Amino acid sequence: MNPEPFLQLDRLIHEKGRLAIMSMLAASPELTFTELRDALGMTDGNLTTHIKALQQEGYLSVAKSYQNNRPLTTCSLTPLGRKAFAEYINLLEQIVRQHKPE
Amino acid sequence: MKPDWAEENLQTIRTLMERSAVYRRALAPIMLFAGTLGVLAAAGGLYFQVESPKAFAGFWLGTAGVVIVGAFVMARRQAHKERELFWSPPTRRVGQALLPPLLSGMFISGLLAVTVANWAVDVPMALVWILFYGCALHSAGFFMTRSVRWFGWVFIIGAIALAIALLKANPSAWTATASLTMGFFFGVLHLAYGAYLYLTERKNP
Fold it and tell me: Which strand (E) or helix (H) includes residue B2?
């Protein structure tokens, strides 16, 4: 087996929680903090930590606004985040192909 | 480490993306349902000569109402079957994207039906519906499968092309054109798109 694709996997995205956040956001232009939390069953603290990590890497952008006088946090993938996610998927597919019998 | 972990990861990603997206599987039956009703309504419109602007508007808005209720029931049933939330965030966004163009189209066509008593207004009314429906599909397509946006463009470009063609034609030839136009756009095109969705869905693992 060629270990190259595995070694190239983005460690930041590879983490289960962050991968789930990236997956949800990849299929939607934006999601609110509450939507992500409820869909993924994460705690506020856990989700905040993951979002910060992805934000620091430039994969995710966070917008803060107000809706019905209540603060609203919205997350979306940046172009860099979309590219990194697509590359991650490509590498996973390569690994799967390597394991598939000819 | 299990050798199939990558495949499991991909499956997880797919599931999460599907959960975050709209019910694509319900789209094909909805399109076929809408197309069938569109063709039947066009045939009925031609047979019963539904030509006065108010009758034409009422007839087609009634058909649209039946399609909307049917689509709602089908999407809800699928969500229930899949044990998914029906009124999910993506579904809400699709609804929000569809509403302004659809309401605008209904308002303008309603205005035409009420203010113009001439049957020749049927074709402009049909064109307004096709144009605004195309805009609605295009907007909703940003939260759905990408092909919906292309489907929207077919309606927009089709309406513009037809408007240009009809401007050059004699208005006396427009009577049957309205029902035929509605039948083609809201019937045949929906059937074709529904068939396309079924065929492409089968290719997905």
Answer: none
Give Cβ neighbours of residue A18 (< 8 Å, ≥ 6 apart). Answer: A12, A50, A53, A54
Classified as helix, coil or strand, A3 is coil
Q: What is the ipTM of this complex?
A: 0.77
DSSP state of A44: H
**Residue B23 burial (10 A CB sphere; 0-12, 13-18, 19+):** buried
Read off the amino acid at residue B120: A
Q: pLDDT tens, A64-86?
A: 988 767 888 999 999 999 999 99
CA B6 to mean position of chain CA atoms: 38
- Does the pLDDT at position A16 exceed 80? yes
Chain B CB contacts of A99 under 8 Å are: 3-4, 6-7
Q: Does the beta-carbon distance from A31 to B89 stay under 8 Å?
A: yes
pLDDT at B181: 92
Give the predicted TM-score (pTM) of the model.
0.67
* Percent residues over pLDDT 90 in chain A: 51
A31 contacts chain B (CB < 8 A): yes
CA distance A30 to A77: 8
How far apart CA B141 and CA B55 sit, in angstroms, is 32
A32-63 burial code (b ≥16 CB/10 A, e <16)? bbebbbebbebeeeebeebbebbeebebbbee
Low-confidence residues in chain B, pLDDT < 50 = 23, 202-205
Task: Tell me if A96 and B6 make a contact (CB, 8 A cut-off).
Answer: yes
List pLDDT tens digits, range B32-49. 999 999 999 999 999 988
What is the spatial distance between Cα B126 and Cα B178, in angstroms, rounded to a whole number?
Answer: 6
Which residues in chain A touch residue B94, judged by CB atoms under 8 angstroms apart?
Answer: none
